[in-house]
Amino acid sequence: MKILLVGSGGREHALAWKLSQSRHCSRLFCAPGNPGISQATAVLANTPEDLADFARLNRIDLTMIGPEALLCEGIVDHFCDLGLRIVGPDRRAAQLEGSKSFAKDFMRRHNLPTAKAEVFDEEKPALKYLRQQSMPIVVKADGLAAGKGVIVAENLAQAEQAVRDCFAGSFGEAGYRVLIEECLVGEEVSILALCDGNSILPLASSQDHKRAWDGDQGPNTGGMGAYSPAPIVDQALEQTIDRQILQPFLRGVQQDLLYFRGVIYAGLMITAAGPKLLEFNVRFGDPETQAILPRLDSDLLEALCATADGRLHEVKLSWKPEPAVCVVMASKGYPGKFERGFEISGIEAAQAKGALVFQAGTREQDGKLYTAGGRVLGVTALGNTLPEAVKNTYAALEEISWQGASYRKDIAHRALK
Ligand code: AMP
Ligand code: GLY
Predict the structure, then answer these.
(1) What is the pLDDT of residues 46-74, one digit of tens each?
(2) C-beta separation of 287 from 226 below 8 A
(3) What's the rounded Cα separation, in Å, for the pair 19 and 179?
(4) Choosing a second label site near 97 at 20 to 30 A (CA), which of 60, 119, 288, 369?
């Protein structure tokens, strides 16, 4: 089978690594990919039309989309119209990620537990509502904002500022509709599942670290590290999540006639009153995928084909019991301003210690590797126990360096407690 994978981050590197191990994979293309994805031939197409042209002309058997933007643009609709096989939700279903008010409405109508929220299209009533609420409170830009559109406000002044920023255009179009949401307290967990509209198949649980600095301090980022499984998700909680979140999600997809043959990512807060949904994403999480896939023993390509074909019920997945830990190495200053162009060394030494090194913001020139983005790479290792996986990951990571390399020293600290 010929596979087209779309995206350029650590998530796509992990997907390429896993997909290329399938006995069904004869050739892998990646649009555009990154220097680490040496398993794949790089492709320059980046619009739904050009990617579909490429898939048609090269007789691609399956296309897999990494990032959300193309899904929200309707790439799946486009491929389906042309009879091309693709994994993902169509444009309407992708609004579960692309519009937080759409997602909230879906959650309410289908009785999925979530935080109480109000939606506003104008600043004045939003500010008035805020003044009647207790703090802390969460202000969310409705649309896609690259992970930056959520502000957890400690006090009224911060919350008001967040609302004003949204309506002043800080998040572009995404912020002209605002959700004001009850602040939930608890442990966060990411539950990813394959869904083909007929059935839903959860992947191993995981937990990511969104804040930039140690101790979960500092600004939100795309994710500074992740581990799998999330120890808080024991068998009982797994069943609760299935009963209260995943099955109602599937029924909702069916009742609303949404076309969903892809990955659903439920961002959950495990509160004292049980799991509650913070958000949906309609794709693999990053860096979660870098911690989850190294634990998967089954053939991912078979599972994705079954998802695209609507025969997911045929698939069973088996997982290594060993926990995996992924630590993201970033450019100094990320998620704020940072410089790029520093030479990276030590990847082979890290690999020699048994770690997987997934590249993201890197660039290759004359056989040398340079930093080229905020999140530069992710280092993943397994261990017999979580503390051992943490130790193995950091031991490998310390082999890698460049000027200004920064990373969190405490990934998985909550689970270690
Ligand atoms: P989201 O993009 O919706 O996942 O939000 C990003 C982060 O904001 C989440 O991972 C949480 O840490 C936090 N967050 C979002 N919604 C809430 C909420 N209702 N209560 C507390 N924290 C939240
Ligand atoms: N790790 C969070 C995300 O992929 O959105």
Answers:
(1) 999 999 999 999 999 999 999 999 999 99
(2) yes
(3) 38
(4) 60
Q: Is 66 in the pocket of ligand 2 (CB under 6 A)?
A: no
Q: Whose CA is nearest to atom 3 of ligand 2?
A: 285
- Ligand 2 contact via 286 beta carbon (within 6 Å): yes
Per-residue pLDDT tens digits for 118-165: 999 999 999 999 999 999 999 999 988 876 788 999 999 999 999 999
Mean local confidence (pLDDT), 170-183: 86
The length of the chain is 417
**Residue 417: which pLDDT band, with cuts at 50, 70 and 90?**
confident
Ligand number nearest CA of 267 is: 1
Please list every protein residue whose CB sits less than 6 Å from any atom of ligand 1.
Answer: 115, 138, 150, 152, 181-184, 188, 210, 267, 278-279
Supply the pLDDT for residue 9. 97
**Using CA atoms, how far apart are residues 152 and 181, in angstroms rounded to an integer?**
9
Which two three-digit tokens encode residue 35? 């220097």
Domains and CATH numbers, the chain: 2-90 (3.40.50.20), 122-176 (3.30.1490.20), 185-314 (3.30.470.20), 324-416 (3.90.600.10)
| C-alpha span between 411 and 414 (Å, rounded) | 8
Residue nearest atom 5 in ligand 2 by C-alpha distance: 285
pTM higher than the cut 0.85: yes
**Which are the contacts of 235, defined by CB distance < 8 A and separation ≥ 6?**
none
